[in-house]
């Protein structure tokens, strides 16, 4: 892969500051100090980048964090479900909140917790990342944050246009983001509903 990247233009983006803002919402708005972070596979650059955003928010507020609060998943539903299993069984102490590095892990975590009697957000607040359609379409909508993918795509197209036409490459400003609140942190809808029953009906 190295020689290929040297020969052809390539782009990478960082989501570090976005995960920091998401974590800040949970700390500052919901006053949580005992937080877990569920990121992607250990050693994956994107997983490390997002984890660092979580750690930045805690460090800025002098909230202690060690390896016992950091977990590595798969960016997909099973990673969230596995962390939920450990919390439900008592293998892990129950945190006040879990910041997930993807919406899919947040959904897997949330649904499994609720199906086993742990309420979200009353018992544990959950936040995801990516602002995927599935995050808002779940029975219990997920608080999330848009990724930098659109900005990356715009930069790549600007570079491609420059390479084809020779015209000056346009500067692409980073779009304004912001936390998209859902029911999983308590800022979204406050409907009185039996989420466990809704989940069972949804699966059927």
Overall description:
The protein is α/β, with parallel strands linked by helices and 204 residues long. It contains 8 helices and 4 strands, in the order H-H-E-H-E-H-E-H-E-H-H-H. Strands 2-1-3-4 form a 4-stranded parallel sheet, with helices on both faces. Helix 3 links the parallel strand 1 (35-39) and strand 2. The longest helix has 17 residues, at 149-165. The radius of gyration is 19 Å and the shape is globular. The model has no long low-confidence stretch (mean pLDDT 87).
Instruction: Work out the number of β strands.
Output: 4
Radius of gyration from the CA trace? 19 Å
User: Strand share of the residues?
Assistant: 5-15%
What is the general shape? Answer: globular
Mean pLDDT: 87
Show unreliable segments.
Answer: none
How many helices? The count is 8
Share in helix: 40-55%
Could you give the distance between the termini?
45 Å
> The biggest beta sheet, please?
4 strands, parallel
Structural key phrases:
four-stranded parallel β-sheet; 8 helices; globular; alpha/beta; 204 residues
In brief:
By secondary structure, the protein is an alpha/beta fold. Helix content is 46%, strand content 7%. The chain has a four-stranded parallel beta sheet with strand order 2-1-3-4, with helices on both faces.
Write the layout of secondary structure elements.
Layout: H1 2-7, H2 16-30, E1 35-39, H3 45-60, E2 70-72, H4 77-89, E3 97-100, H5 103-115, E4 125-127, H6 133-137, H7 149-165, H8 195-203
Parallel strand pairs: 1-2, 1-3, 3-4
Helix pairs in contact: 2-3, 4-5
